[in-house]
Amino acid sequence: MFKNFIGGEWVEGVAINRNINPSNLDDLVGEYARADEAQARQAIDAAFDAQQTWQRSTAEERADAMDRIGTELLARREELGRLLSREEGKTLPEGIGEVTRAGRVFKFFSGEALRLGGERLPAIRAGVDVDVHREPEGVIGIITPWNFPIAIPAWKIAPALAYGNSVVFKPADLVPGSAWALAEIIVRAGKLPPGVFNLVMGAGSQVGNAMVKSPKVRAVTFTGSTGTGRRIGLDCMERGAKVQLEMGGKNPLVILDDADLDVAVSVAINGSFYSTGQRCTGSSRLIVEDGIHDRFIAAMVEKLSALKIDDALKPGTDIGPVVSQDQLDQDLSYIESARSEGGRVVFGGDLLQRATAGHYLAPALITDTENSMRINREEVFGPVASVIRVKDYQEAVAVANDTVFGLSSGICTTSLKHATDFKRRSTAGMVMVNLPTAGVDYHAPFGGRKGSSYGPREQGSYAREFYTSVKTTYTLA
């Protein structure tokens, strides 16, 4: 059994989590420990005690630790990518790519540990020096989702450690294998003092609740559902803790009449259906101008018909299974909801049988939808895309922005005028032009607006805003 890591030791849990391969329900990936609230508090105490030592470590010591972790991730990308794809269901190339991204993230923050600067300001009083610098926040609680089981933990853990914070990490129950493998590398390759990094696998109601409520946890970073995120935000704000929330999206991809059809179809297929559509940045609303609509739909159906939906580890698989039975049931319920409101499923939406029992769903393309329908208001988080026909560019922008979410948006056009205007008017935190709405660089800020995100941005140099606190000092010269 794979154990939790608390206070520098591998510790058995109070229960066992059986990790099942969604491509093959007879394949047990492994048995992983589940902690309870008491063990979570032990991890928090260990992190709190270790913080005093770790925050006094040199920037070079932290940089070297992040570099070693990144080096091992990159060296083992194929092995770890296979584990990731086996337990989460994204294709093997996607799994290897995700591990590669995680390694690059640690390498990036190795450099950031050395680049954390400050400034000296001129004082308004004679003989006084004013200095501004950044200090680590303290204990960071990290709660991550199942859809990117190595990349998202990496882009939260790496800056936390690089800037001198200690960490309590709770991964999603569905993907403990990737989290455990990452944790083992962090602990060993990073050569961190006991208590600086802690892995506590278990239910959010136990482990997550302890982290969110503890006065020793100075900041909580969470990626997951909107409802859970809002509860975490309220709990943290009630006790004055810093909070960073990433809570999903209902991302629009606008296709204009002047778009290159091949580019538009490729962008839509990638953004809507790759990674089985299980990306918060996925293109779930395809907003298509009237003049290109029918040609676009025909080309989409032709391209979808050629995709291979199968075991995530099989060569040539384009789309793997849905991650779990619960998620599959949710996807099917949204497809049926769209039908009941007048939507037309022009491709997919059916369960598929493969050589092994798994959660296989043909990617669904739904036309004749209105932006007011449930399918266009709520996040589905599966291989399901709905099409909204609009008469012109102005209506397309209005529909794209008519959502409570604001994570990512995209437009396919050959018009510089429309591309420039859309980048300005989109109310999303990230805008893509002739590119999938999903897919971002590790050195650039990540995050949205409105109901998608709350708090400072993730990734890149902007991560310092969350993981450090600004201190201003005045000295009589």
Structure notes:
The protein is α/β, with parallel strands linked by helices and about 475 residues long. The protein folds into two domains: about 5-245 and about 440-475, Aldehyde Dehydrogenase, Chain A, domain 1, CATH 3.40.605.10; about 250-435, Aldehyde Dehydrogenase, Chain A, domain 2 (3-Layer(aba) Sandwich). Helix content is about 40%, strand content about 25%. It has helices spanning about 35-55, 60-75, 75-90, 90-115, 150-160, 175-190, 205-215, 225-240, 260-275, 290-305, 325-340, 375, 395-400, 415-425, 465, and strands spanning about 5, 10, 15-20, 25-35, 120, 130-135, 140-145, 165-170, 195-200, 215-225, 240-245, 250-255, 285-290, 345, 365, 385-390, 410, 430-435, 455, 470-475. Strands 14-15-16-13-12-17-18 form a seven-stranded mixed sheet, with helices on both faces. Strand 1 and strand 2 form a beta hairpin. The longest helix is centred in the N-terminal third of the chain and has 24 residues, at about 90-115. The protein is globular. InterPro entries: Ald_DH/histidinol_DH (IPR016161), Ald_DH_C (IPR016163), Ald_DH_CS_CYS (IPR016160), Ald_DH_CS_GLU (IPR029510), Ald_DH_N (IPR016162), Aldehyde_DH_dom (IPR015590). This is Aldehyde dehydrogenase family protein.
